[in-house]
Design brief:
The chain has 7 helices and 11 strands. The protein has 211 residues and is an alpha+beta fold. It has one domain: 3-Layer(aba) Sandwich (Glutaredoxin). The chain has a 5-stranded mixed sheet with strand order 7-6-5-10-11. Strands 1-2 form a two-stranded antiparallel ribbon. β1 and β2 form a beta hairpin. The two termini are 21 Å apart. The N terminus is likely disordered.
Length: 211
């Protein structure tokens, strides 16, 4: 399992176990019809109550909800564009992994939408997040919103974050869970993707799960 990371400007990756947060979302629930029942039973996150509706904003200023992605397999990641280390590395693995999956199986890869949600709306405007996301893959969707909207989304996806104190330059770090989650076309959680192992491992994981 890829444990989430917490990032700061001048420190190496600081990691903590995702298990306590994930356990809070493991109440059993009925899965939808996004994949065969046999396949669902094999999902690492089968039955977990992770994910849910949100109202955020894309780079064009349009309101986007979780249901807008219905019918697509979804990769979801919470981070911020000013992140000095973890976020760009993970985003590169997501984008690169999806690109490799497109070469392996274009038809199935076309069903996958990567979503990068910023937890730093003070600095990350929708346009900034959108441009950041598209740097890593042309189909990666960048979203953010008001603090209240981001908090709602983070709670639904069992993500946490904390804005640090500004330094003399005005820069402030953001500690956050850095977990890459895969969801099926019905929005049911499938697996945690191992972004820290690089794009090829992520591509292989997509090939394994996306039906």
């Amino acid at each position: 399992m890829n444990p989430p990371a917490m990032t700061s400007r001048n420190s190496p990756f600081r990691r903590f176990l995702f298990a306590p947060l994930l356990a809070a979302g493991l109440a059993l629930s009925a899965c939808g019809g996004g994949a065969p029942q046999q396949a669902q039973a094999e999902w690492p996150l089968a039955g977990a109550t992770i994910g849910g509706d949100f109202t955020l904003v894309n780079k064009d200023g349009e309101t986007v909800t979780w249901n807008d992605f219905k019918g697509q397999w979804r990769i979801v990641y919470f981070g911020f564009t000013f992140c000095p280390d973890v976020c760009p590395v993970d985003a590169a693995a997501i984008g690169g992994g999806l690109s490799r999956f497109e070469q392996m199986d274009p038809e199935r890869a076309a069903q996958v939408t990567p979503i990068f949600i910023s937890v730093d709306p003070q600095r990350d405007t929708p346009e900034v997040v959108g441009e950041f996301a598209e740097t890593f893959h042309p189909r990666m969707v960048g979203l953010t919103g008001t603090k209240e909207q981001v908090d709602q989304a983070a709670k639904a996806f069992v993500a946490t974050y904390n804005l640090g104190e500004p330094d003399e330059t005005g820069y402030y770090p953001v500690d956050h869970t850095a977990t890459t989650l895969l969801f099926d076309p019905d929005g049911q959680p499938v697996a945690i993707l191992e972004t820290h192992q690089g794009p090829q491992v992520l591509a292989d994981e997509l090939a394994k799960w996306v039906q």
